Amino acid sequence: MKKVIIFDFDGVLANTMQLHLELSRKFFPDVTEQDHIDHGKSNPMLKPAIRYEKEHYPIYFDMYNKRVVETEFYPLYDFLKKYNDRTIVICSSSPREGIENFLSEKRISEFIDDIYDVHINPSKVEKLQMIMDKYDAKPEDCIFVTDTVGDINEARKLNIDAIGVTWGLHSREILGEAKPLAIIDKVEELDELLK
């Protein structure tokens, strides 16, 4: 049994593609959706396809924190409630403040045990290791649910199984390149995998 369920935030819990596109265009007016798709093929903080300047990040994150609550919450409420007996953690390249604002607005804060955000460490490998250390978990005790190839590849470095979801940034075809444990189109399939 997977005792620690780790969720990426953007593209998995929150439909933030359009928000990220709009925010990116504040700095790079010609940035495209394809640029964002490419951005997610590796760690966007360590090997970005969209090359933000260091001074862009505080402005970007401030705008994100204020607007992320406006985005759609993917239909995971029932899932989070059902698995509330397990440890549920968010591991994200976004800032904690925006994530907390979203969780509070959507009334799901009570289901989330912890948040490992961009400010803790830009590397998801490092954050995933921190999560395992904190919850005394081995790789086989964990599952990482994400919408990007970059995350799947980072989880693999720690031998953590990843599940790719097609309702986020990357398509089934792109996710398949990283060979996750499974690729799912509906939340119900996640439920089946974790039974």
What would you note in describing this structure?
This protein is an alpha/beta fold. The protein has 9 helices and 8 strands. It has a 6-stranded parallel β-sheet with strand order 5-4-1-6-7-8, with helices on both faces. It has a two-stranded antiparallel ribbon with strand order 2-3. Strand 6 (142-146), helix 7 (149-156) and strand 7 (161-165) form a beta-alpha-beta unit. Helix 1 (17-24) runs antiparallel to helix 3 (56-67) and helix 3 packs parallel to helix 5 (96-105).
Briefly, what is this?
By secondary structure, the protein is of the alpha/beta class. The chain contains 9 helices and 8 strands. The protein has helices at residues 17-24, 33-39, 56-67, 77-82, 96-105, 124-134, 149-156, 172-177, 187-194; strands at 4-7, 14-15, 72-73, 87-91, 114-116, 142-146, 161-165, 182-184.
Keywords:
195 residues, alpha/beta, six-stranded parallel beta sheet, two-stranded antiparallel ribbon, 9 helices, 39% helix, globular
Using DSSP, what is the number of strands? 8
Contiguous helical run count: 9
Calculate the mean pLDDT score and round it: 94
Strand content: 5-15%
Structural class: alpha/beta
Give the overall silhouette.
globular
Share of residues in helices: 25-40%
Poorly predicted segments: none
Strand order of the largest sheet: 5-4-1-6-7-8
Element-level helix/strand string: EEHHHEHEHEHEHEHEH
N-to-C CA distance:
8 Å
Write down the Rg. 16 Å
- Strand count, sense and closure of the main sheet? 6 strands, parallel
